[in-house]
């Protein structure tokens, strides 16, 4: 084996470690979700670094930009059947069509205008990716997401008026704050909405998120290494 192959294979070893940590966190949790899905976040990484993870059998991936995903995934998808692609980054309304075409799940629905655009494109394309509503649990001005106090009414609007397939809530805790407080708030809001899925937890805090019943953890750096 050349040293190049050794380097390019390390994401598969990392994947194994992260999957074991997910299982250990579930085993230790008092109230883990019925299942915790690991989304391998491949943003910022080329196909060559994603391949070992695909070859190891992993099929759930996350990207945060429509254009980047469009450049990378159609080709990988033809070689590896069963890929489930999640959009975890902010979505502009004018990219709603491409997002509906490309992704199986969108985690960043956070405003009425985007909800309406997604509705229109889903009807046109006859394709219905599952949706998470992103909540700005830290109420940070620069961060995407609906305010916590508006979450229940927004989810109701999306679900009941627009008939969108909302499956859960998503959050990204503020830097430097205790993530557990934000995971607890997201869980409480999701109970109030009657939703089942919780997209929360990244490389640094996915084990904590699992304690608060995360159903989807989004892990990039711990699998693929540092982004350039
Ligand atoms: C990049 C990103 C992640 C993964 O972050 P890591 O710290 O690399 O695990 C998770 N969620 C979102 C929304 C992201 O943008």
Would you kindly provide a written description of the structure presented here, covering whatever features stand out?
The protein has nine helices and eight strands. With 228 residues, it is of the alpha/beta class. It is globular, with a radius of gyration of 17 Å. Pyridoxal-5'-phosphate is lined by residues 41, 43, 64, 88-89, 172, 202-204, 218-222.
Note the main attributes of this structure.
228 residues, alpha/beta, 8-stranded parallel beta sheet, 9 helices, 8 strands, globular, disordered N terminus, binds pyridoxal-5'-phosphate
User: Strand-residue fraction?
Assistant: 15-25%
Order of adjacent strands in the largest pleated sheet: 7-6-5-4-3-2-1-8
Which molecules other than protein and nucleic acid are bound? pyridoxal-5'-phosphate
Q: Summarize the amount of helix as a percent range.
A: 40-55%
- Look at the helices and sheets and give the structural class: alpha/beta
Radius of gyration, in Å, reads 17 Å
Sheet of most strands:
8 strands, parallel
Q: Please, what is the average pLDDT?
A: 96
Number of strand segments: 8
Inertia-based shape? globular
Cα distance spanning the termini = 26 Å
The helix/strand order is HEHEHEHEHEHEHEHEH
Low-confidence stretches: 1-5
How many helices in DSSP terms? 9
